[in-house]
């Protein structure tokens, strides 16, 4: 009887152990199932991220190709502009050489001196300085006419084409003082607008079908307003 009770007790213990193991296995299986679901969700997220990265990579490659194309276009344009700039510099050098041979050293030195004075005031007081704003350039820069009249203008104006037009005579005094202060060379003549004395001119009527534009002189003639200055020659 005792042996039978012991056998039953052993069987019950075995059953309890097996029940516990089954319970633990069920718990592990449930946890593994949860882990599997999480892994599948993570895999889905990773797959989406890979697709996003792939699309971004394709976009960046397209942008790279476009930038490379733009770069080549800009390089060609830069080369063309540099070539044109060199041609313009050569043309400017030839023009300045011809100008120096025609006008003389004094006038050209005066042109350089006035430009330097304007830049001095620009650096000192900024681009809104009254001298910078009040200096309008040389007379030749302010005349605009058809090429047909170039010779007439040159003969009529002569060296006065290189006179400097300024807003008023007060600016002239300050510019002259700056020229003398720096011992700048050249021959300089000013035309202050507030000192210009002009008279109306009338022209006979003609049967010319259309008018020829001539800007800079207009229908009035300047009769006086010259302020000459001879700076230090070098």
From TrEMBL:
<dbReference type="InterPro" id="IPR036277">
    <property type="entry name" value="SMC_hinge_sf"/>
</dbReference>
<dbReference type="GO" id="GO:0051276">
    <property type="term" value="P:chromosome organization"/>
</dbReference>
<feature type="domain" description="SMC hinge">
    <location>
        <begin position="133"/>
        <end position="207"/>
    </location>
</feature>
<feature type="coiled-coil region">
    <location>
        <begin position="1"/>
        <end position="105"/>
    </location>
</feature>
<protein>
    <submittedName>
        <fullName>SMC hinge domain-containing protein</fullName>
    </submittedName>
</protein>
<keyword id="KW-0175">Coiled coil</keyword>
<dbReference type="GO" id="GO:0005694">
    <property type="term" value="C:chromosome"/>
</dbReference>
<dbReference type="GO" id="GO:0005524">
    <property type="term" value="F:ATP binding"/>
</dbReference>
<dbReference type="InterPro" id="IPR010935">
    <property type="entry name" value="SMC_hinge"/>
</dbReference>
<dbReference type="Pfam" id="PF06470">
    <property type="entry name" value="SMC_hinge"/>
</dbReference>
């Amino acid at each position: 009887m005792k042996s039978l009770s012991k056998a039953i007790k052993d069987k019950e213990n075995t059953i309890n152990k097996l029940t516990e193991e089954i319970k633990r296995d069920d718990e592990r299986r449930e946890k593994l199932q949860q882990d599997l679901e999480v892994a599948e969700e993570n895999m889905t997220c990773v797959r989406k991220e890979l697709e996003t990265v792939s699309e971004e990579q394709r976009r960046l490659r397209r942008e790279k190709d476009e930038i490379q194309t733009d770069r080549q276009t800009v390089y060609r344009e830069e080369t063309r502009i540099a070539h044109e700039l060199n041609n313009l510099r050569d043309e400017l050098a030839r023009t300045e050489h011809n100008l120096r041979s025609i006008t003389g050293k004094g006038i050209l030195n005066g042109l350089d001196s006035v430009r330097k004075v304007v830049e001095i005031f620009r650096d000192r007081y900024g681009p809104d300085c009254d001298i910078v704003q009040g200096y309008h350039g040389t007379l030749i820069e302010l005349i605009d006419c058809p090429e047909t009249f170039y010779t007439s203008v040159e003969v009529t104006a002569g060296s006065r084409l290189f006179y400097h037009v300024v807003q008023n005579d007060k600016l002239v005094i300050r510019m002259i003082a700056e020229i003398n202060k720096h011992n700048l060379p050249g021959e300089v003549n000013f035309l202050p607008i507030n000192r210009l004395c002009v008279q109306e001119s009338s022209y006979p009527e003609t049967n010319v079908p259309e008018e020829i534009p001539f800007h800079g002189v207009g229908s009035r003639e300047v009769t006086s307003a010259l302020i000459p200055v001879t700076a230090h020659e070098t």
